[in-house]
Amino acid sequence: MNKLNTDLSNAIRFLSIDAVEKANSGHPGLPMGMADVATILFKNFLKFNPRNPSWINRDRFVLSAGHGSMLLYSLLYLTGYKSISLNDIKNFRQLNSICAGHPEYVPNSGIETTTGPLGQGIANAVGFAIAEEILKKQLGKKNINHKTYVLAGDGCLMEGISHEALSLAGHLKLKNLILLFDNNSISIDGPTNLAVSDNFKKRFNSYGWNYIEIDGHNEKQIFNALKKVQNSKIPSAISCKTIIGYGSPNKSGKELAHGSPLGKDEVSLVRKKLKWNHKPFEIPQNIMDEWRKIGKKGFHKSKNKKIQKNINEIFSKIIKEEKRNYIESIEAMATRKSSQKILNRLTKKIPTLIGGSADLSGSNNTKTNSHKIIKPGNFNGNYIHYGVREHAMCGIMNGIALHSNLIPYGGTFLIFSDYCKPSIRLSALMKQRVIYVMSHDSIGLGEDGPTHQPIEQLSNLRSIPNLNVFRPADTIETFECWELALSLDTSPSIIALSRQKINPIRKTYESENKCASGAYEILRTNKNIELTILATGSEVNLAIEVSHKLAIQNIYSKVISVPSLEIFNLQSEEYKSEIMNETKHKISIEAGLTEPWKKYVGENGISFGVNEFGKSAPGKDVFESFYLYSDYIVKQIKVMLDK
Questions:
Q1: pLDDT above 60 for 307
Q2: In this structure, are 173 and 56 located in the same domain?
């Protein structure tokens, strides 16, 4: 490195060292090791503008190896982003500091995504790259022509999500995607050869990627590699052989530099070795001026292309029209088919809605006749075949949502939400409008048996903060749940759908979106009642059957459809009391774990559900084997009321 570039790199190193030391917590090794690569990238290649962090045509820089967060914070501060001050860096890892332990997404800040769980950033970056290609087709390459750079470490590439995401990126020939591999051969436990002997070159080549190996501390090699990949026709990985904790006499190249402060004495030795004769957090003015000059290079170029439109009115109009059309030709329908029915209209009218499925398009019914398939080298479409890659699909959808105004949805079975959980959690954490279409929502799917029948999944998903879990009871509710999922732009949604046909419960047209209350009265057998029946999904029909059988015996009740507990919990206390407190006795019916319902039915109530794994049999037989049939439930209710 020449003297200037060395000084620029050392500014990153020592801001990172000093911040970690002051916090007495953090990972100094990666910023010290990758500072040289980051300097050349930001100085010579990255297209960005600190004055306009949300510039649509900026290059995206994703730090997948999120433990090295001080690398990113140092770069943002040095290049002049208003979001990161020197005081923020001094408060690294402290309460409410934007400089968190791992990067946490903040809109318009330069922090593109929340990373921490290793490999997630790689999947996000693939999503960014896909979104860029889609928008390039929609808006023209004069307006959209940027790249996505993702910095990944050994740990990111060990995680399985990296295989899924990199494989799809290679298949799609995402030429605008560049991965910088911090190949330092160290993980927390020690040398990576304790657990890994991959041939990375063969691995990336097999995915359909370029793979270039360089010395990550050699300025010329770094520059030449980055220059070479600018016009690549396929995605590129640059393996940067680096020394973790570069400059530390006693800890460089060792796990000791990975996850803890260097220590006061070692920091002094690093300062001496790298000839950095400055106090903690002090950056000489000439070096700061050079960094700010790098930050200013994009000022004159960055104009935002206005692409955001208020499309909620379009959603609402389409939903109302389709509700009216359905009422005119009402029929029993699996809610997965109901979902496809509304998607057929939505995808025709809304080019920002990008669909997909993890190799289950025909089962999830996520693909419609109006979809165009996104293919290798051809992004003039709105549907992605993700392959059997649930984990990557969800991480990629996060990247698509973060990129701009695109709204991604992707399908799989509800049981496979277990594969998706880390990415779903990050969708909720980042407040992204990502829609997860999850069919085969209960034991009602039948013959595929307990490996495919979700039991605890609804409860698990409902436990995630800022996630809407919708389980519609019929076609009209499915339409309304889609409207809500599309309009809630600061939270992701799960739409859980049935495989089996469901008889309609809403048979007259109403413009009001009743699901917007989360729970509402669907049936009442008398003005005066003594029982409230709560149910979701296909079990609402069962609840209605129970209610009618009770009424024949002069036991009167109301049935409450609960398409979303999360939405219901947000309603006024007055409304919740109206729904829940009219009767002393309450029951719930849902083909899943019963424990979460006990807070709603109380001590005097009964929750009917499934508290063990499912069985292989036709759906009706499985329901009956778990006592989810009307005669049994009526009998138990009468016993409860007689007490």
A1: no
A2: yes
- Distance in angstroms (rounded) separating the CA atoms of residues 243 and 33: 5
- Give the SS3 label for residue 554: coil
Which residues, other chains included, contact 471 with Cβ-Cβ below 8 Å and sequence gap of 6+? 441, 458, 496, 536, 537, 562, 563, 564
Q: What's the pLDDT tens digit per position in 206-237?
A: 999 999 999 999 999 999 999 999 999 999 99
Q: Which of 479, 502, 525 is the last residue of a domain?
A: 502
Residue linked to tokens 């080549």: 205
Domain contains 534: yes
Half-sphere exposure of 505 (CA within 13 A, CB side): 31
Query: Do residue 183 and residue 278 come from a single domain?
Result: yes
Is a pLDDT exceeding 60 seen at residue 308?
no
Q: Which residues pair with 435 in a beta bridge?
A: 409, 493
- Per the CB < 8 A criterion, the answer to whether 498 and 441 are in contact is yes
Residue 40 belongs to domain spanning: 3-296
The answer to whether residue 321 is catalytic is no
Residues 426 and 374 in one domain: yes
Mean of pLDDT over the chain: 97
DSSP 179: E
Please check whether residue 260 lies inside any domain of the structure: yes
Confidence of residue 304 (pLDDT cuts 50, 70, 90): low
Question: At residue 538, does pLDDT exceed 90?
Answer: yes
Burial 580-599 (b: 16+ CB within 10 A, else e): bebbebbbbbbbbbbebbee
The confidence score (pLDDT) of residue 402 equals 98
In a domain, 530, yes or no: yes
Radius of gyration of the chain (CA): 28
Same domain, 526 and 603: yes
Q: Residue 474: how many CB atoms within 10 A of its CB?
A: 27
Element (H, E) at 291: helix 285-296
**Nearest Cα to 72, choosing from 174, 189, 150?**
150
Say yes or no: 69 and 196 in one domain: yes
Q: Checking phi first, is residue 137 left (phi over 0); if not, alpha (psi -120 to 50) or beta? A: alpha
Residues whose CB falls within 8 Å of the CB of residue 39, separated by 6 or more in sequence, listed in order: 5, 8, 9, 12
Query: Would you give the DSSP letter of residue 31?
Result: H
Q: Contact at 8 Å (CB) between 119 and 33? A: no
> What pLDDT is stored for residue 299 in this prediction?
76
Distance CA 578, CA 582 (A): 6
Q: How many CA atoms lie within 13 A of 430 on its CB side?
A: 30
How far apart (Å, rounded) are the C-alpha atoms in residues 474 and 478?
6
With beta carbons less than 8 A apart as the criterion, state whether 426 and 484 touch.
Answer: no
pLDDT in tens, 312-329: 888 899 999 999 999 999
Q: Whole-angstrom Cα distance, residue 104 to residue 181?
A: 21
CATH number of residue 539's parent domain: 3.40.50.920
Query: Is 273 found in the same domain as 363?
Result: no
The predicted model scores a pTM of 0.97
Angle between helices 264-273 and 3-23 (to 10 degrees): 180
- Catalytic-role residue among 159, 290, 390, 483: 390
Q: Could you tell me the CA-to-CA distances from 205 to 124, 196, 201, 597 in Å, in that order? A: 21, 18, 6, 51
Q: Are residues 32 and 83 in the same domain?
A: yes
Q: Which CATH number do you get for residue 331?
A: 3.40.50.970
What is residue 446's three-state secondary structure?
coil
Task: Report the C-alpha gap between 353 and 347 in whole angstroms.
Answer: 6
Where are the extended beta strands (E) located within 108-223?
A: 148-153, 177-183, 186-187, 190-191, 210-215
CA distances from 97 to 25, 83, 155, 230, 461 (A): 14, 11, 26, 35, 29
Residue 520 β-bridge partners: 561
Neighbour tally for 304: CB within 10 Å? 13
In a domain, 154, yes or no: yes
